[in-house]
Amino acid sequence: RLKTTFESRAEKSSNAMSAKILRLVASKRTTLCVAADLSNTDKVLELANAVGPYICIFKTHVDALEDFSKKFVQELQQLAKVHNFLIMEDRKFGDIGHTASLQYGAGCFNIADWADLVTVHAIPGPGIIDGLINCLENSKSQLSDRACFIVAEMSSKDTLTTGSYLSAAIKLAETREDFVAGIVSQSATGISSPGLVQLTPGVRTISSQNGKERNGTSREDGLGQQYNSPDHVVLERGADIAVVGRGITEADSPSDAAKLYRDLLWKAYEERVAV
Ligand code: UP6
């Protein structure tokens, strides 16, 4: 699976959104997802416009915004069209299906209405996926235009997402490709389906972290986040798409930083699939 090109994995994918992601990544030649962990909508839109040409996915946390509005969503969708990227709301749903369904399609954010992709914890079991599907069946969004990523393994220090939980989370993703396009994880171990896209956060170059290096590959942010280099996550951990947040948002020029991360990640991918 890891040696296979994104184009041929798209052919084998049984989920429409995962095929769409894999084709987009292949044609735009970028496996970079930028995490917009900012609290102001103008700043998020400015970032989306700056990094848009270099990314495949723009990842939001809209519940961290102080001034969320419908207008913001429309402007973000416009930028997604102009620059050709997908929008992922990193909501990390984690409740029973009925509650998750309300959080997805109702409330002030109405995520189902605008986010191409969302993230979901595996902890409630398959009912959470059914809840999200049920929400879409009763909304104006097409089921085939939406998908989720299962958070199987977290990047944070001493995470509990290990052992049998991790294997069960991957199994959940593999058995629910009707709505699951990918897996958020730190390694490809146990993932066999060619269509599932591995999204790996905790990525930062040593130089963009002001010398806070702890050892060759793994560094931290003081609040439990652990970082690996772009090369390492693609070649050693099996990342298809790498999530970079502060490595780009805190750079002097987010657009130059995004271009650099895109180039480093793409070079590593080409090395991975080279025969
Ligand atoms: N994220 C992680 N680790 C996970 C899952 N998700 O860091 O296991 C998300 C965070 C944040 C981004 O919610 O939005 O990825 C990482 O940002 P950073 O590069 O600034 O650390």
Automatic annotation (TrEMBL):
First-to-last residue of the parent protein present: 226 to 500 of 500
Binding positions (substrate): 37, 59, 155, 204, 225, 245-246
Family: In the N-terminal section; belongs to the purine/pyrimidine phosphoribosyltransferase family.
GO BP field: 'de novo' pyrimidine nucleobase biosynthetic process; 'de novo' UMP biosynthetic process
GO molecular function: orotate phosphoribosyltransferase activity; orotidine-5'-phosphate decarboxylase activity
Top-rank taxon, per record: Eukaryota
Chain spans, region Disordered: 205-228
Domain Orotidine 5'-phosphate decarboxylase: 31-261
UniProtKB keywords: Decarboxylase, Glycosyltransferase, Lyase, Multifunctional enzyme, Pyrimidine biosynthesis, Transferase
Functional pathway: Pyrimidine metabolism; UMP biosynthesis via de novo pathway; UMP from orotate: step 1/2; Pyrimidine metabolism; UMP biosynthesis via de novo pathway; UMP from orotate: step 2/2
Identification of the protein by name: Uridine 5'-monophosphate synthase
Active site residues per record: 90, 92, 95
Protein's organism: Frankliniella fusca
Keyword presence, Secreted: no
EC number: 2.4.2.10, 4.1.1.23
Comp. bias intervals (Basic and acidic residues): 211-222
